[in-house]
Amino acid sequence: MTTRDGRQAAASRSAAGHTLTVAVLAGGRSSEHDVSLSSGAAVRDGLRAGGHEVVWVEIGRDGAWRRDGDGEPLSTTPGAGLLGADVVFPVLHGRFGEDGTVQGMLEMLDVPYVGSGVAASALCMDKVLFKELMSAAGTIPQVAYADVREGRLSGAGRQRLLEQVMRLGLPVFVKPAHLGSSLGIVKVTRQDGLERAIESAFAHDTRVIVEAAASGVEVECGVLGSPRGEHGEQGAGALASTPGEIVFEGDFYDFEAKYETGGMELLVPARISDSAVQRVRELALEAFARAGCDGLARVDFFVDGEDVLLNELNTMPGFTPTSVYAKLLAASGVAYPQLVDRLCRLALEKHAALGAQVF
Ligand SMILES: Nc1ncnc2c1ncn2[C@@H]1O[C@H](COP(=O)(O)OP(=O)(O)O)[C@@H](O)[C@H]1O
Ligand SMILES: [Mg+2]
After folding, report:
1. CATH code given to domain 3-115
2. Is 158 among the catalytic positions?
3. Share of the chain above pLDDT 90, in %
4. Is the distance from the beta carbon of residue 252 to the nearest atom of ligand 1 less than 6 Å?
5. Quick one: fold of 123-140+215-315?
6. In whole angstroms, how large is the CA radius of gyration of the chain?
7. Strand partners, 248
8. pTM strictly above 0.85
9. Which of 75, 143, 155, 163 is such that its CA lies 20 to 30 A from the CA of 304?
10. How far is C-alpha 231 from the geometric centre of its chain's CA atoms?
């Protein structure tokens, strides 16, 4: 079968009701390996509940891909797809999974895959690049921040950098630019803790962001769909869920709050005004479209009264039925099996649309 015939066949399979063979990719090399295995198992079960065939491909911490998680590592051939699957569902979080690298490999295999493509995935994994793109729009409010590259803490630029960071006030949040799950994030409340926090962030990454502290509550919004709307409007083809509010004990929404049982509670709907809800949903769709995302995203905000600040956009959020993303979509009427099914159909539609282009 030629690639073009393959794309046409894929397009016909995108019709709802057609049973698909879906390769679920889970695990991976990042520190979110275990989270990904839980998310992947849930996606596998949801697809099976919807009548689809699942091929389980587990990516080890060593980076090898293994069918059913054991046996010989898989090898792949460019242009030849992956294990005969109609669609690949990369349920991977963090580096080498959510950052465009796996997406690039799947492009080379010429197989439809769920979620954002190479550029949007890479952009949204880089907290500085993402903020820069969002601020270029001029319409998306965010916290003030400073971009700190490796090397800027030494030499002549050091003083200038520290002055720039001090202008953000205190406290500040110091973060490695490419991590997730709150890993490596330090809240700095005293000026004398700043340099050490920046140095410790460099143990994780070559780029660090320092942010002014936002006030208010944390609110998250799930997006499902394609940004390619009929009228070319921002996010016109995508649905923004009812926003939910994250409630946690402690100073900020850290790793323990995210993953320990009882560490956080999701309130749906969020306890914010109707106009703030409206604003969150509009900004979620705008961020999704401006970043060039596809399929899904969870867009996170700080809301203080009528002030709504965009925090970040996750292109592959935690994905179990009890994860925030799935709960938000469920509250908006999209049950889990329907959600994973819809994402596979969107992947097939995108792949078919790309095949119709001349390049
Ligand atoms: N600028 C900020 N102001 C207030 N709280 C923040 C700020 N940045 C991060 N936090 C806290 O740290 C958490 C994790 O930060 P975030 O940027 O979302 O990183 P991650 O990608 O690891 O989730 C947030 O959910 C919030 O609780
Ligand atoms: Mg976050």
Report:
1. 3.40.50.20
2. no
3. 75
4. yes
5. D-amino Acid Aminotransferase; Chain A, domain 1 (3.30.470)
6. 21
7. 264
8. yes
9. 163
10. 26
